[in-house]
Amino acid sequence: MVRFLAALAVLAALFTTVQADELDEILKPIQVTERVWYFKGSLEGRTYENQAFTNNLAFVVTDEGVALIDSGPSSQVAERVARAVATVSDKPIRWVINSGSQDHRWLGNSYFAEQGAEIIALKRTAETQARFADQHMARLQGVLKERLEGTRPMPAPEPVDADRHAMTLGGVDFELIYAGDAHFPGDVLVWLPGEKTVFTSDVVYLDRMLGIHPWSDIRGWLEAFAALEALEPEYVIPGHGRASDLAQARADTGDYLRAIHDGVREGLENWEQLDQTVERLGEMPEFRHLTHYDEWHRMNINRVYLDLEANP
Q1: Domain named Metallo-beta-lactamase: which ranges (predicted)?
Q2: Residues 228-249: pLDDT tens digits?
């Protein structure tokens, strides 16, 4: 009996170890084009097990090195990302491009900078990162615990003071495009015209309900989405969810933003109270397939109402 219980304890420990780390599955590179790959983050919220890797990261293999789009939520995750990239290419990671300001998009910056990578971001993005840094670290400390050790917030040291910025690495053209504040102020699109591929940051969510925060701007978000449509990309790598195409981006994000914006605007014009607007728009079955619909949809309506009421 003692041996049996001991064996059960060993099995339980092994099971816990396996369950405690989801990164092995998340960090399986998914190919989009000959040069472009991405990692699909968890669709769930931040947990110790998924190490707060709830977003997508992408990387581009060029003739002169790798360009990484976003750096992850911690230095420990960044190190794992680097190892996963190395399974595809033995070229060094030369650039880390920050597409946004949410924690999982840039808190791995310092790790890659220490390895010699250049951190690239628009000034708008870097300013928002600095503004939210303490809040992000405090929140992640409660989730990641010791897995946050070694993480040092580091916005791009020399951000680009422009709303569009073109650059080239190893024969691949990149363009950073700011078209409006979206999920966070300073969210940008990363456009690869030669690959007909756009990495959208949090301008696009697929498979998962997008979240509208008090600092989100639905009008700017719609403007950013319109800029995305104007690019006419063949491949869309969203901030969350599987890579797809422009039609799916419209279905899961563009159409939702427009439905919420127009529905709330109609309510305000008709002098509806907040609870009346939330109730009228509270069921949108065409978006129910999105993960977290039940948790986020009505809250999104609430926040858009308050925003548009205060800023008509």
Answers
A1: 54-240
A2: 999 999 999 999 999 999 999 9
How does pLDDT run across 39-68, given as a tens digit for each residue? Answer: 999 999 999 999 999 999 999 999 999 999
Q: Read off the tokens for 131.
A: 């503004």
Give dist(CA 262, CA 273) in Å, integer: 16
Region at 103 (left for phi over 0; alpha for psi -120 to 50; beta for the rest): alpha
Cβ pair 38, 56 in contact under 8 A: yes
Phi, psi of 162 (to 5 degrees): -160, 165
| Separation of alpha carbons 250 and 247, rounded Å | 5
Domains assigned to the chain: 24-245 (3.60.15.10)
3-state secondary structure of 154: coil
Q: Are 125 and 188 in contact (CB under 8 A)?
A: yes
**Which region holds residue 227: left if phi is over 0, alpha if psi is between -120 and 50, else beta?**
alpha
